[in-house]
Write a structure and sequence with these properties.
Elements: H1 2-69, H2 73-91, H3 102-120, E1 125-129, E2 132-136
Antiparallel strand pairs: 1-2
Helix pairs in contact: 1-2, 2-3
InterPro entries: Essential_protein_Yae1_N, LTO1_adapter
Subcellular location: Nucleus
Protein name: Protein LTO1 homolog
C-alpha cells in the first residue's frame, strides 16, 4: 500500500515540481537577459547625455571666444553666464554613473544653457538623431 501512495505522490507532485523547475529556469534566463538589456539601455542613454553635454560645451566655448573679442558692457553679462555654464560643465561627473544628483545637475546645465541662448537671442533646437546630434538655429 505504501508503494502505491509513492507512485501517486510522484504523479500528483509532478505539476509542482515542473512548476518549480520552470520558474528557476525562467528566472535565470530573465536575469541574464535583463543584465544585457540594462547594459544596452545604459550605453544608449549615456551616449545621448554625453552628446548633449558635448554640444553645450562646444557652444559655450565658441561663444566665449566670440564674446572675448568684443568685451563691451552688454557682453560682460553674457560672458558671466558663459563662464557659469562652462563651470557647471566642468563639474559634471562624467565618470560616475551612480552620482545621485546627476539629473539635477543636468537640469541645471540645461537651464543655464537656455539662459545663455536667451541673452544671445539664439533659438536652439538640440536634437539627438541616428545621424548624430547637434544644435539647429
Amino acid at each position: 500500500m505504501a508503494v502505491e501512495q509513492d507512485i501517486f505522490d510522484a504523479v500528483v507532485m509532478a505539476d509542482e515540481r515542473f512548476h518549480g523547475e520552470g520558474y528557476q529556469e525562467g528566472y535565470e534566463e530573465g536575469s541574464s537577459l535583463g543584465i544585457v538589456e540594462g547594459k544596452r539601455y545604459g550605453m544608449v542613454h549615456g551616449a545621448k547625455i554625453g552628446s548633449e553635454i558635448g554640444c553645450y560645451r562646444g557652444f559655450a566655448l565658441a561663444w566665449k571666444c566670440l564674446l572675448h573679442s568684443g568685451a563691451g558692457e552688454k557682453d560682460s553679462r553674457k560672458m558671466k553666464v558663459v563662464e557659469a555654464l562652462i563651470a557647471l560643465l566642468q563639474d559634471f561627473p562624467y565618470d560616475d554613473p551612480t552620482y545621485e544628483k546627476l539629473h539635477e545637475d543636468l537640469d541645471r546645465i540645461r537651464g543655464k544653457f537656455r539662459q545663455l541662448c536667451s541673452l544671445l537671442n539664439v533659438q536652439p533646437d538640440f536634437k539627438v538623431t541616428p545621424g548624430g546630434s547637434g544644435l539647429a538655429f
